[in-house]
Amino acid sequence: MSEKQEQQAVGSTFEELYLEQRKKSQMLIVAVVVLAVVAVGGIAWGASQSSSQSQTPGNFQEQGFGGQNGPGGMGGMRGGMNMDIKQFFNDDGSVKTSEVESFLSQMPSGSGNRGGFNITDMIERQADQAVTDGDITQDQADALIKAFESESESNET
After folding, report:
1. What is the spatial distance between Cα 113 and Cα 109, in angstroms, rounded to a whole number?
2. Phi first, then psi: what are they for 62, rounded to 5°?
3. CB 84: neighbour CB atoms within 10 A?
4. In 3D, which of 44, 22, 41 has the Cα closest to residue 33?
5. Which of 51, 86, 89, 90 has the highest CB neighbour number within 10 Å of its CB?
6. How far apart are CA 1 and CA 32, in angstroms?
7. CA distance to 30, 33, 145, per residue, from 38 (Å)
8. Contact 100, 88 (CB under 8 A)
């Protein structure tokens, strides 16, 4: 063989090896990207599963009142309350005691003043805010607070 033919044979072998290695490299990059996407998706799915499983009815302080198992119509406790205080009133403006009883029945036993949390204090703050917002009158707020206090006391005994 002449020298020129040997160089072409070596060149084509080198080029073939280069292309083969480049193909392997590209496949490796694709595999790494796919694995990264799967890992991120798995982490996101695991986090969502973990947070939904931690929301149990007895775990109301962590999940907030707006959690899946908490009383309806209320936002998270730590992030501020978004309670519709009007749910506790009849159309004529009187306190709907059945709604107060229902709300308190959904609270864990002994939640009247547990761990620094007092349901009556929370209702007082919400009622005061509703008066400020013009949603209810001061008389309605006072009646609601009294209804919660009396129902809480009757549940404790």
Report:
1. 10
2. -80, -40
3. 13
4. 41
5. 89
6. 45
7. 12, 9, 52
8. yes
pLDDT one-digit tens code per residue, 58-95: 444 444 444 444 444 444 444 444 568 888 888 898 88
The CA radius of gyration of the chain, in Å to the nearest whole number, is 33
CA distance 133 to 151: 26
Burial label, 99 (beta-carbon count in 10 A; 0-12, 13-18, 19+): middle
DSSP state of 60: H
| Interval 103-116: pLDDT, tens | 888 776 554 444 45
Tokens of 153: 């006391």
Structure tokens at 26: 């590209």
Strand partners, 114: 117
What is the value of pTM for the model shown?
A: 0.44
Answer whether 119's CB lies under 8 Å from 110's CB.
Answer: no
In the block, tokens 């280069």 appear at: 18
Runs of H (alpha helix) within 59-137: 60-63, 97-105, 119-133
